[in-house]
Write a structure and sequence with these properties.
mainly alpha
Length: about 50
């Protein structure tokens, strides 16, 4: 994603920036949720073994 001309902040509408940030945040939360679910599942399995 190399670009020849630099991007000026004024060229990007605020709503586009916010929507990109929202998407990133949702993806991060989803990944964290999946990781938490996996660790909970693992702890359940460990507890069942004991």
């Amino acid at each position: 994603m190399l670009q020849k001309k630099p991007i000026k902040v004024e060229d990007i509408p605020q709503s586009q920036i916010m929507s990109q940030r929202r998407k990133l945040r949702e993806n991060m939360l989803r990944q964290l949720g999946e990781k938490a679910a996996v660790t909970e599942e693992r702890t359940d399995k460990v507890l069942l073994k004991t």
